[in-house]
Amino acid sequence: MKCLYVSDLDGTLLRSEECLSEYTCGVINELTKKGMIFSYATARSLVTAKKVTAGLRARIPLIVYNGAFIRDNVTEEILVADYFGQEILHVLDELFRNGIFPIVYAYVDKKEKFSVIQEKCTRGERVFLDSRRGDIRTNIVSAPEELKRGDIFYITCIDEPQKLEPFYVKYRDTFHCVYQRDIYTKEQWLEIMPKAASKANAVMRLKGLLGCDKVIVFGDGKNDIDMFEIADECYAVKNAHEELKEKATAVIESNDDDGVAKWLARHLFL
After folding, report:
1. In angstroms, what CA-CA distances link 155 with 45, 179, 181, 187?
2. Domain boundary residue among 193, 226, 249?
């Protein structure tokens, strides 16, 4: 059977220092050279994902922004995309009225941008901006109305739980929402995406694009649950969220112990 292997990045394939080990790169590169069909599904953009996976030579489409886009790893062409409709403008207005000014991802004048009002940034949003210094997608704006420009596909709110949780509860059935603490900064995030934009949907689309018969996935976070639910086999790393472990076929070694690469090497006979 033709199998597609898909791994989450942060907390799963990446070590805690946000990097790939030499061992993991070596195993995946060797196995893909022998024919393994491997991709990753991440909440990161293609820009930041490529930075932390620079040692990988896999040349198949990649799932980014938690499934909002599938992009060609070589040409960077967008193969599949999900955008919000006009309804998201009302959500943004409601966020603004409640003192929440998110980071808004959109194509503005045909260029990928993330827009933010710097003067209204929370501590977590300032940390985010500091980590993206020099990123050509950065679009600093001065007014809430400017956050509504372009074809919007992803919204990230970083704020106090008591401010964000009511919006998660309100919109989780209307949109694809991820409500969890960032594994690095421990800040509370609420990410809002179009309903069709999920790792699960993107994996199934990629499975069809590549003509695969079976899917095996690896993950660590609650945003990997939907991907686990559609996979033929699913493996949680030892450091994974307990809720994800309950849905896993098995628990493997942790991200810092190269759990995914060791599983691949063992089962694909490297």
Report:
1. 13, 12, 15, 16
2. 193
Q: What is the DSSP string of 15-64?
A: -TTSS--HHHHHHHHHHHHTT-EEEEB-SS-HHHHHHHTTT----S-EEE
pLDDT of res. 58: 81
Q: Where are the beta strands (DSSP E) in 159-249?
A: 176-181, 188-193, 214-219, 233-237
pLDDT of residue 270: 66
> What pTM was computed for the model?
0.91
Mean residue pLDDT of the chain comes to 96
Q: Which residues is 234 bridged to in the sheet?
A: 217
CATH number, residue 189: 3.30.1240.10
Domain containing residue 209: CATH number: 3.40.50.1000
How much helix, strand and coil, in percent to the nearest 5, is found in the chain?
Answer: 40, 25, 35
Instruction: Work out the percent of the chain whose per-residue pLDDT is above 70.
Output: 100
Residue at which a domain ends, from 176, 193, 210: 193
Question: Does residue 200 contact residue 230 with C-beta atoms inside 8 Å?
Answer: yes
Place of tokens 């800040």: 187
Q: Report the pLDDT value the prediction gives residue 216, as an integer from 0 to 100.
A: 98
Q: What is the CA radius of gyration of the chain?
A: 18
- Residue 155 has a CB neighbour count (10 Å cut-off) of 24
